[in-house]
Amino acid sequence: MNTLTSLIRSRFDPHSLNKEAALMAAGNGYAGIRATHEEDYTLQTRGMFCAGFYHRAGAQETTELVNLPDVVGMQIVINGEVFSLLSGTVLSLRRELHFASGELKRELIWLAPDGQRFAIESRRFLSARQLPCFAQRLSITPLSGPASVSIVTGIDATQTNAGRQHLDEMQVRVFDRRWLQGIYATQDGAHQLAITSHCQVSRAENVRFSAKNRRLMQHISASVERDATFTLEKISWIAVWLDGTGQGSDISKDGLEHLQGCVAQGYDALLEASVAAREMYWRRSRVKVSSRNPEDQQALDFALYQLFAMTPCHDARSSIAAKGLTGEGYKGHVFWDTEVFLLPFFLFTRPGVARQLLRYRWYNLAGAQEKAARSGYDGALFPWESARSGHEETPPFAAINIRTGVRQRVASALAEHHLVADIAWAVVQYYQVTHDGDFMTREGLDLLRETALFWLSRTTEANGRLELHDVIGPDEYTEHVNNNAFTNHMAHYNVAQALHYLRTWQACDAQFEARAEDFLTRLWLPQPDEQGVMAQDDSFMAKPAIDLTRYKAEAGTQAILHDYSRAEVNEMQILKQADVVMLAYLQPGTFTAAQLAANLAFYEPRTIHDSSLSKAIHGIVAARCGDAESSYRFWREGAQIDLGPDPHSCDDGIHAAATGAIWLGAVQGFAGLYVSDGELRLTPCLPEHWQAIDFPLVWQGQSLHFHITHDTVAVSADSRLPLTLWGKPVMVTGQHIFYRRDFCSSEPGSATTEGRA
Amino acid sequence: MNTLTSLIRSRFDPHSLNKEAALMAAGNGYAGIRATHEEDYTLQTRGMFCAGFYHRAGAQETTELVNLPDVVGMQIVINGEVFSLLSGTVLSLRRELHFASGELKRELIWLAPDGQRFAIESRRFLSARQLPCFAQRLSITPLSGPASVSIVTGIDATQTNAGRQHLDEMQVRVFDRRWLQGIYATQDGAHQLAITSHCQVSRAENVRFSAKNRRLMQHISASVERDATFTLEKISWIAVWLDGTGQGSDISKDGLEHLQGCVAQGYDALLEASVAAREMYWRRSRVKVSSRNPEDQQALDFALYQLFAMTPCHDARSSIAAKGLTGEGYKGHVFWDTEVFLLPFFLFTRPGVARQLLRYRWYNLAGAQEKAARSGYDGALFPWESARSGHEETPPFAAINIRTGVRQRVASALAEHHLVADIAWAVVQYYQVTHDGDFMTREGLDLLRETALFWLSRTTEANGRLELHDVIGPDEYTEHVNNNAFTNHMAHYNVAQALHYLRTWQACDAQFEARAEDFLTRLWLPQPDEQGVMAQDDSFMAKPAIDLTRYKAEAGTQAILHDYSRAEVNEMQILKQADVVMLAYLQPGTFTAAQLAANLAFYEPRTIHDSSLSKAIHGIVAARCGDAESSYRFWREGAQIDLGPDPHSCDDGIHAAATGAIWLGAVQGFAGLYVSDGELRLTPCLPEHWQAIDFPLVWQGQSLHFHITHDTVAVSADSRLPLTLWGKPVMVTGQHIFYRRDFCSSEPGSATTEGRA
């Protein structure tokens, strides 16, 4: 349980090339580099992305995270034959991503078409110490006789985002016959990029350089004796200069100097430094489980590896893209996924990063205010999809119907307003976990006030009360409804919390106070019926239900849309994900234990789980209902979204939110952690497969550690820690072991949360 | 000798993919489509180009012929295996381009990795009748058992010019679940493009469409019984709307209607119509040879196939790109190649096309005048590289030194001014061959006056005479010299002819007349020395010579520049091509027979032939010297520039000028045709390999036919035709056979031209 797992592939399959490129991508929050092979394959999509490096390629286009020039690619020619895993015979292959070090290693024995054998090894990593540093090492050992080897590698700026070019080539140079450098700028001039690369080879008969058609290449050729090893060490310094910061800087010299420093250290020393930097991360956040299924630990390590890789901790003006930095999917845009699925992990392990993520929203308040004003509302209406400017980036014509030619604006940008309250929820979560008053005064109160102001202006007078009309909840299969339960409750929470904190900080004016109180009194809050079930919206219960078994079996593929139009789906009880279940997750106090179970039982059969956000949340809520086995099944299925067998499930990038949800499911589901009324609460509910779960936590400045089995909760805390365990308040100082039998008289798992709190 | 040859490949070699894609490209002067395989290969560069469809992708970029969205590509999956010639085993393969029909056909038997055999055939052509129509047919026959087949094909707008994207996607539609249409515009809005495609399949279980990431695709799947044949007929209408002509037109409807008309006809009928249109071309221009080397006829047929494919006869605002429409090389720009190497073929076979090519220059006079004025000269200084606007398109930084970072303007654009006189030469040639007074008054006189005015202002007073300083002749290895023989003589010719024709048409003002006469009197014309050798320029004879044997063996590769810098090459007697030999070709009257031989003997050892324009011209001049065997050797080597074994010789497009030179060498070299003082002259000099050459010709409106053997010249002419044969004037009416023995007393081949005329 102590050694970090890795991700291993021992077979080459051209069909899963791009999935593997995303799963095994290198990343350090600053840059992400897809795990493409050195050699080209027709279906292989290379990709390098830097956080915040967005550009729009034309008036008809959408802002997207730019796929930057490639440094990974190497054409390897051995004895005149272009090396490829599709030619000759691959006698053995092992590709392994070490989560601990972030190093990707490929080892193989290749039987070339001419019958000669070669051992080929490649290694690479993105430094966690010096974020712009990417290092590669290639070695080739002829096993049957001497060989001629030639390598062409460099900086390839022919990369595009599916044919869209974002970069102008500003300068291409080779310094001192060693240092390759390409300087690029986005076509709008906003951002600059300097890539500087250096190749060190064990021996070379001939080295030359070429610069043509956006490719700056070094051509190396060498003769290698049998059993001798030819090595190539390529180190690149990838420096982005966002928002005009490159102006006035000597970005060429900067790149050269930094790279020279890295080259002086060499691959091994750079790796060692990077591993040391990562060690701290793992120590502060790793979740260890004892499970009968070894894939569980791997899923958790994978998730944390990716959470590190995707998060731009260095820059509060960047946030986490829906696919992290692993692909072009969703154009690198930021969704509510960040606040709801990703921020909690950082909140409980590195709260400073969680603050950065909230500051990203605070920096972008102007765009949100502009969108609210444009839509006829007050306050801040955050963009459904966000990039760097803070303006709405949802592609206007994503829903263009290629048959009718009708261009529809994407409905999410028009009506999926719950995002506003989700951000406010994250602000409150952050404050409750950190008690960070500095944040509240600098950013938190602004966010709470502006989000609340939005809701105050968003209401409709109807039925003698305030209602929220024409919204879309998280369930995107049900559009343009009135009084979506999730939205109404979250909006109410948003305004209530804003009023509370603005009053606490004496930052509340009378007019706001009056409007907020009226809103809180008069906003219609959907309530559970006598069976305990809360209607998703005003019209939901009147709609017909159909058997979804077939579509649930293909969850995530949106197969329902092959049989029904969106309009038809909208008129049935068909959910992409269940809003009431999501509400139960975010606001556990809304429901009694019995109501929780009733809602889960009612909505789950109506939910296809076509959203990658769905299963994990159902799993957590199932755990809170004490149904550990359903919870485990959901959790495993959630982990399979990226790690499962579908060869194309994440071709254009891993699902960042689903990755965050692997941690959420373990810590908030099975360990049963949640925050309510400013208190830390734990109601563990381990699945039968698991003997124990073990994780660190930061709570209001102190470092905690939990070790939970089916029968015990061991907690260590530096100082006094009040805690609610299985619904009962306890106090911890130092090491403490609690026994479940002392808390729960009934069956394990039957203990629930708010019902007893 | 009567059946047109074809180009056949019976082996698949990934190294020569791109060469073959250029050699076998489809073309009709309107569009060119590279002969890429349906399936993708990592090194394969797809390409579709339309004449005149240029765009500049950014301020740092050069205007280039846009690589348009691809329609050729098809992903073929059989029993779940992606078809590729690199997987499984190719049991037989034949790929054939029929020059007569322009149809490219590939037939193969594929043993799939699962052991099943399949016959796969694909055919395609660009219509010569309806220029925007491109038709493809794919058929798949399972030979071992039933099979599932799936095809994905459509319109792929992810194409770029080496990573540079030129097009905005304006609209993407599927009409009536059958007609795919993508409408694109250059990013500057100048040109529009509508591609409409339709697929007809023999059977399909499932058809769906997708539009994502600039790819509009049709997905077809079918089950096919053993020995049954699945066929897919894809017809595309590729309509370009240049210079804003698309505005106000319903280009969508236009594309649909035209395509519907084509689809109603079907592949076979469309092909038949296209072949009929091509037949006329071959009848009017085919050169037939009886040679011991069958590749000679193939080279001539190849050349004429490509001359048809590259020449935009439909649009006088477009001209012939240096690589035709077969690749991105030279960015699709137009050079002096057009006037000197390509125009003569059309002049003698389709003079209307030759006039179009000259009108292209006339339309672009404004740009040439602007460049002259900007450079401090009068008249018209045509751009060294020209696209559609008529402005200088030579990449400013092509010569950027990646080691020093120093950006040099390409010298050709600054000083390679002979182009101006070359255009005037073509004007005079055109008039002499056609006696087209309409052309002369509308365009010819303008071109002659403006080019002459340029030279009048280009002189330097030195040594008591007018000199031309700081020029570059055709030999680009010798830069910035004074009194380049080629340039001075051609400039003199230009002014003399302008004066002559302006006087003839009474379009000459006194001032021009006076300046021209002074120029003609006082311009220094380099003269042959006592050995008959003319110095290439003032400084040439003082430079040292070195042994070039090694570099001549690698002609065309510029290997000299690996050993010497450009500056060093400039200071030695090292020629890329020989200017004096080129002058001898264009102005035969400049030299006596003895001088001709002396210059060839002097310059050839000093010439590497690194220019693809070099060998053919040496060959023609050798023939004029009576050296048929040297001439033949040069001619064959010239034909090998594209057709030879080098697998990468024309990856980015065939050498248009070298293609034209295959015709020049046959007709102007071996048949010894040339025009002097307005007279048609023939001094045949067949190589030993050839028994006969046979070709049609248009001369001053009448159709002639020549059949030439070593001993005879058979001529047919409709009406009276004065002709100078082996230096003696003869008159032809109807059929006539002349015997060499009646003209030449001495050895065959010793008869020369101007020496006797």
CATH superfamily of the domain at 7-285 in chain A: Glycoside hydrolase, family 65, N-terminal domain
Structural class of chain A: alpha+beta
| Radius of gyration of chain A using CA atoms only | 27 Å
Q: What would you call the quaternary organization?
A: homodimer
Q: How many beta-strand elements of chain A? A: 28
- Quick one: overall form of chain A? globular
Domain Glycoside hydrolase family 65 C-terminal (chains A, B): 675-726
Keywords (chains A, B): Glycosyltransferase, Hydrolase, Transferase
Protein name (chains A, B): Glycoside hydrolase family 65 protein
Family (chains A, B): Belongs to the glycosyl hydrolase 65 family.
Describe this structure in words.
2 copies of one chain form a homodimer. By secondary structure, chain A is of the alpha+beta class. Chain A has a domain at 7-285: Beta-galactosidase, Chain A, domain 5. Chain A contains 19 helices and 28 strands. Chain A has a 9-stranded antiparallel β-sheet with strand order 1-9-10-11-12-19-16-15-14. In chain A, a hairpin with a 3-residue loop joins strand 2 (26-27) and strand 3. In chain A, helix 8 packs across helix 10, helix 15 packs across helix 17 (614-624) and helix 16 (593-603) runs antiparallel to helix 17 (614-624). The longest helix of chain A has 35 residues, at 251-285. Chain A is globular, with a radius of gyration of 27 Å. The model of chain A is unreliable at 748-757 (pLDDT under 50). At the A-B interface, strand 14 of A face strand 14 of B. Chains A, B: Residues 675-726 form the Glycoside hydrolase family 65 C-terminal domain. Chains A, B: GO terms for molecular function: hydrolase activity. Chains A, B: It holds the Pfam family Glyco_hydro_65m.
